[in-house]
Amino acid sequence: MIKAIVYLTNTGSTGRYSEMLSEATGLPAFSLKEAAEHLKLNDEVFYLGWVMGGRIKGYNRAALRYSIVGACGVGMNLLKEDTAKMIKEKTGITNPSIKVFYARGAFDMDRLDAVHQVFIGIVLKKLKDNNGDKNIIKLIEEGGDFVDRANIKAAADWITGHNRRFI
Ligand SMILES: Cc1cc2nc3c(=O)[nH]c(=O)nc-3n(C[C@H](O)[C@H](O)[C@H](O)COP(=O)(O)O)c2cc1C
Fold it and tell me: Checking phi first, is residue 19 left (phi over 0); if not, alpha (psi -120 to 50) or beta?
């Protein structure tokens, strides 16, 4: 039975989705740091992490402590049919029973630290040099916020369905 939502956020949008999931499921939401105080080793959790370079950040760290039964990546890209599958593969999640979701978050250059600003600068240059997605270039340059309760509904329903089996 899933005991909690555990998350890692950089600029806040993954944290906001975690709070929304907490409200929808009645489970507590803890940042990866806070979770150590509240959860036991191998407790079942649902994990949310922001996406960097196609990977769900913090997943491996969380998986060392907890039994992750489902996860959600939060990124800036539009949700496509294969997004969840791609981030699952890139994160290195090979267990087929671990369900992975994707939700579109927010991007705000001003909220990034210097290191991540450099990283995203490299991404931006690559996109421009290779005639990449104009909408993503605009999003990186101007920022945008796509956090919406509707984007997390599938994950909330899945968690509720999962835990119902234990009642
Ligand atoms: C260095 C860097 C790399 C990123 N790489 C991706 C990516 O590969 N795919 C994606 O969808 N979003 C990517 N993003 C966007 C973030 O995942 C997105 O802004 C997310 O909502 C941030 O979540 P947070 O507000 O919880 O930190 C990247 C952002 C940064 C700063």
Answer: alpha
Q: What is the mean pLDDT of residues 48-69?
A: 98
Q: Are residues 104 and 33 in the same domain?
A: yes
Q: 89: helix, coil or strand?
A: helix
Residue 15 Cα, ligand 1 centroid: separation in angstroms?
Answer: 13
Ligand 1 atom with the smallest distance to the CA of 53 is 8
Residue 68 has pLDDT above 90, yes or no: yes
Ligand 1 atom 23: residue of nearest CA: 50
Query: Which atom of ligand 1 is found nearest the CA of 54?
Result: 8
pTM assigned to the model: 0.97
One domain for residues 135 and 154: no
Q: Does one domain contain both 26 and 57?
A: yes
Q: What does the alpha-carbon distance between residue 56 and residue 87 come to, in Å, rounded to a whole number?
A: 7
What residues are in contact with ligand 1 under a 6 Å CB criterion? Answer: 9-14, 50-54, 74-77, 105-107, 112, 116, 119-120, 123
Quick: pLDDT tens for 128-161. 999 999 999 999 999 999 999 999 999 999 999 9
